[in-house]
Amino acid sequence: MDQKIKDFFRRQWYPYLYGLAFLLFKTVRYTPSFAWPVAFNLYVLYIAITWLLLEAFKKAATVAYAGIFVIMCWASLLHVIGIAQLLGFEYAYIPANFYYAFYVFVLCSLIAARYLLRKCKKDYARYLNSLLNTFLLIICLVFAVNGSVTVGQEKKDVVKTAPSAIDLPASETKRDIVWILMDEYGSSEVLQKVFAFRNSFDTILQQHGFCLLPSMQTRFPNTLLSLNALFNEDDSIRPANFYAGIDALKKASWIQRIKRDGYRFVNLSSFDIGGENKLEDRSGYPSTYLDQLISGTLFGMMIEKARFTTVRCDAYNHRLYEKLKTTLSEQPQYPRFIWVHLAIPHEPFSRDRAGGLVSLPTYTGKDSVPIKKYYTGYLEYGNHLLQQLLDTQQTWKDKIVIITGDHGPRYSFIKEPGASNHPYAAVYIPEKYDTAALQQLRYISNLPSFLKQHGLP
């Protein structure tokens, strides 16, 4: 019996265990998203490809050490993004030349390994197989146990949130609430200090009766975390990771509250929020179990690059803007909370200040000259869209209108302290209200509490 176990472990199982370990590692990052059919089908596909690779390398290299070549291939595909980041590249700015150089290096490494391993005694392979099989089996068990513990902990960790939503008192007239979020739109002070850009949109909004909030902040210089602080009524709790953040947004306690108060939630964004589906999947965050598995791999990056082209992002913003104009012109029999998330001035910078399509050069987050040019041009284009909306759509004047960023600009060349935590913010309320109290608010996630405390609408 002992000999059979030894013989079993001396076979090349480790290429298959490597895939199982990767699957478990990705799954335990956020277990509630787990989907059996996806996991099963992907692992079966992995096994089939691994078997083909093993057979190919047995013929092209060496039978005894074929598994080493398979591991090298899979590692280069599944961990390429992590390797790039270890080498100092920013996630959003990994150039194509890196991939070319990296896979040339992998190819050279395979050739060198073929030459070296052919000189190794085949008897050593049995001990190497046993060692790698045991190691990866232990890793799989560790991930499995960790996953079971995480599941139990998630059931206990029921997040309790403070009652800071727009819990409106009963009234005959409830005004529509329109919140327009401009992604990565920094405060005018930040724009002046970082980009030497004077934001004329301040004057335009003041002429339309808006109250500017120049000192407004967000605790989180990240879209997903900033939105969670707002929609789940608590900015003291940070989701454990992006997967948990996506799931928390789907529950959105604020939206549940305003629905109970008779409001309809109109979700014009790239996130599922409060049980309402996204307009289009443009967030860039993993929203499904499959996304969770392939994020950070070459496959995930290829899909992301194909989805987030300049043309497609521009089409999304145009579709959303037209949908907003249509929604504002409607006259429903119920009050609405209209949430609009424009991906402006966030990258990719699709248009210049005149509205022309942009052909972007290759750059990184450290290249201040092109970023300053394209960011401010795109921001002015966004300003023009909002100004046009305010000038032509008169139906907004009887609504509460909030215009904010989710966070400030986050480029690595920026040295200004706290720039990424200072988003743009302005509010229009038809009724008389305490302007001084509004301007004293510190975080954009405090705005719902302000409206509730002042009995608005």
- The number of helical elements comes to 18
| Secondary structure tally: strands | 6
Q: Tell me about the biggest sheet? A: 6 strands, mixed
Distance between the termini: 77 Å
Q: How many domains, as an integer? A: 2
- Quaternary arrangement of the chains shown? single chain
* Element-by-element helix/strand order: HHHHHHHEHHEHHHEHHHEHEEHH
Radius of gyration in whole Å, from Cα?
A: 26 Å
Helix/sheet category: alpha/beta
Summarize the structure.
This protein has 457 residues and is an alpha/beta fold.
Overview of the molecule:
The chain is an alpha/beta fold and 457 residues long. The protein folds into two domains: 2-156, no CATH class; 177-453, Alkaline Phosphatase, subunit A. It is built from 18 helices and six strands. Strands 2-6-5-1-4-3 form a six-stranded mixed beta sheet. The relative contact order is 0.14.
Indicate the topology.
Elements: H1 2-9, H2 14-27, H3 36-60, H4 66-78, H5 80-86, H6 96-117, H7 122-156, E1 177-182, H8 188-195, H9 201-207, E2 211-212, H10 223-231, H11 242-251, H12 253-260, E3 264-268, H13 289-294, H14 298-307, H15 310-329, E4 336-342, H16 368-392, E5 400-405, E6 425-428, H17 435-439, H18 447-453
Parallel strand pairs: 1-4, 1-5, 3-4
Antiparallel strand pairs: 2-6, 5-6
Distinctive features:
457 residues, alpha/beta, Alkaline Phosphatase, subunit A, 2 domains, 6-stranded mixed sheet, 18 helices, 7% strand
